[in-house]
Every structure is written in C-alpha cells, then in structure tokens.
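Lab notebook, bench 4. Continuing the backlog of folding jobs that were queued last week. Each job is logged with the same field layout so the records can be merged later without manual cleanup. Today's entry covers non-specific serine/threonine protein kinase, a 464-residue chain. Filled in by technician R.K.

JOB TYPE: sequence-to-structure
TARGET: non-specific serine/threonine protein kinase
LENGTH: 464
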Amino acid sequence: MITLTLLHPIQSIPVQHWTFEHEPVIRIGRSTDNHVILYSAVVSRHHVELRRGDSQWEVVSLGANGTYVDGKRITQMPIDGSIVFRLARSGPNIQVHVGALPATAAKLQSNLPAQKMKPPLGGIATDEAGEPTQSGEVPLTNLPIPVTSQPEEEEPQSGVLTQRSTAMDVENEPDQDSLSPISSANCTHPRAQGNTLFCPDCGQPLQVMQTVGDYQVVKTVRQDAIGVTQLAWRNGQNVVLRTLKPEWQQPETVEAFTQQAKQLLALEHPGLPHFSDFFVIEGKPYLVRSRVHGQSLQQRVSQRGTPTQAEVIASIVQVCDTLDYLHQQSPSLVHEDLKPENLIQNAAVGNPTIVGFVSLKSLAIGEQTAASPYTAPEQRQGQKTVAVDLFALGPILVYLLTGESPSAFYAQREQGFRFYPEYVPGLGAEFVTIVRRLTSPQPEERYASAKEVAAALLDISITA
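JOB STATUS: finished
OUTPUT FIELD FOLLOWS
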C-alpha cells in the first residue's frame, strides 16, 4: 500500500489523500490521464511518476519546473518509508507514505476527502484539465492549492486568480445573467478578498450565486434561446452545468434533454469534453461536464486573423472525426448547433473540442433559430439529422478561411435562395466545390458522412 497526501500550502496540514494498493506506477500532473490530478499552472501535464521497483518505490521527476525535496531539485530519489516533495519551487506539496499508516495518521486521514481511484484513461486526455489559456488565465482549482496566472514554464509571482472576463477563454464570457452572489464561503484566509472566484489558499468558492443539488454555482457563462450554461463547483472540482430556461421546462423538451444527456454520459472522445453527471431537481434537468479552456475558433479569427489553409483543414478534419463518432452512436447523436463559437481549440491537447450540446434547436423553432448562418434550412421545420451538422461545416470553412461572415453569402440568385460559396472573395475553387455540396438546400445532396467531408479536405491538402 502507498498513500499520497496533499498538504496545505501554508499550514502543511493534510488536505486530501489518495491510497493505492496494486498500481506499479502512479502518475501525478495536470492532465486527466494521471492518477492524481493537480490543477496548478506550475504543475506540468505529466509532472511526477512514483515507480515501484523490486525492493522499494522511487520518485521520478518529469516536469519542466522540476520537483524538489528539502529545497533541492531532484530527478530521481528512492522513498525510504516516507517523503515530502514539492512540484516546482512554489507548487503543491505531496507527502508519500509506503506501507500502512501509523494509527494517529490513519485516524486523521479518515476525516479527509478521499479520491476514488481508477486507472487513467489511455491515449490523449479528453479535456484540458488545468492547461493555461492563451490569455494567461488559468483554470480554477479542483484541489485546495494555490493557482496562478503564469504559464507552465514560469514560476508564479502571485497566487490570486481574479474573476476577469476575457475573450480568450470561452468559459469566462461576461455574465448574461442579472443574478448577484447570494452567499460566500466560510473562508477567512487573508487572500480571500477582492474580485476573486476562489480562495487561492483553500480553493473554496468565495461567491456563490445559488446551490443546485451538490453543486455551487459561481457564474453564468452564457444564455441562449433554450438553455443556460453556468460555472459551478463541487467537492474541490469546477465544472460546467447546462440546464433549461424555466419557460422550456416542458415534458417534450425535458425528455429530449434527458435522452441526449444520457447519451453524452456514455461517450469518451478526445474531441469532446468529459460529461460526468446528470440529475433532475424539481423537474429541471442538469447536465454536468468538464470545463474546456482555450480560444474558440471564432475568437481565434477575430483576434489573430485567419489560420493558414493547412491549419483550417487540420482543424476541420479533427472536427469531422468527432462528428463521425457522434453520428455513429445508436441513435445518432446530432449536435444541431455547430458554429465557430462552439469549437474550442483545446489548450491542453491542441485539438478542437466541440461544446454547446443540448441546444435542442429542432425544438426551438423561430427567429432565433433561423438567424444563424450555420443553421441548415430543414432545421427551421424541426428536422434533426446528421445532415444538419454537415451543413454547418460549409459556413464554418468559409469563416475560418476568409474571416468573412457567412451571412453575407446567402442570396436569392439563379438557383433560388441558398448559400453561394462561389461569391466568397478569395475562396479557392476546391473549397467552393466542397462548401457548395455541404450547403445544398437538399439534405440528400450533401456528403453522406463527416468521414467523406474529411476525405475531400485531405485531398485538397495532398494536392496543394
């Protein structure tokens, strides 16, 4: 048996613990494929490994900012019974104890929150899990340790994470809700003040808008025609809640929300956030997912200009892979609201992550649905098939390649009212052909699958 204990950054008292019995290697870092996940900007995605040899355990440092024991940087060190090491010069302290804990320590540990252990996911992590955004803002903590606003390779100067709005982080958009904080956590730490969401010392939320079941809502991220998306906190983890507006809590809508939520809970893909919980309170459904950090593709274009043709192709091919995974579910899971704002360039893995699920646009028929240039015409009649997701890829391609709003290229011309890619300035002939097929008013004339769209785009890449 081996026990890992997170120590309080100031008082050095135990805060949380993890116990392992059979794992030969225990990985610690920011990425969600670790056994122990620590969300701090100075902690690398894969920072430390504890490896069990023939006769004893050893600590192996992998992180860019180093691992320290008694103030000295180490690369590898045997564990003789017990050891305390720090991740980076100013990061969290972890105490490691091999074997059964002494009685007094075991009693203390029993009063701490324990992390349920499961093997790490293979391959690439499906969410960013603590990756700093390109604005310099970092994710909120999931453990009571200081978080900073510095990139991984630098040591922080301050432990305060301010509640600032930035277009660089899609989960930190300005509140579109008039709710003000109704309570504050019982936190008396000296740095728990000012315009902060979480205490930099203990990690508790400082401003709570409302409590939903076990979740404390700290911020409204966005509202749309049918639902509300909020940032929430539970047991040391920050998550995103998606629910319906009160006027949409009707049996048909709640049932559609529930069915899609249950499907999402069963999915695991690098191009999707991790969906972790679903519950209903007083007839109101809630879907819980991980928070995704990084720029949306809309933000990327508006702030940095259009990507290169190769970058656009690579991004959309990855989106097509995720769509193909969704569409092959039984029944097919249709996103219904694909647009650049809902494609986040995940700062942790570098791939686009699709967010904005449970929009239920097929049920929200009206002006708000018809206004989007990424909406297929049949959606306005309440139709929902994989073809509506494929349609959206056409205007998305035009926006990414040119920076032009797709709305400008809908017109009543020789072939009736439709999207005319041939009138888009600077759009190459190969892209015109693909976009024209994607945006056909007749669903049966579009590509048969997202995989076909990806193949057509890769053909352009090969011949370019």
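OBSERVATION: The CA atoms of residues 148 and 161 lie 6 Å apart.
SIGNED: R.K.
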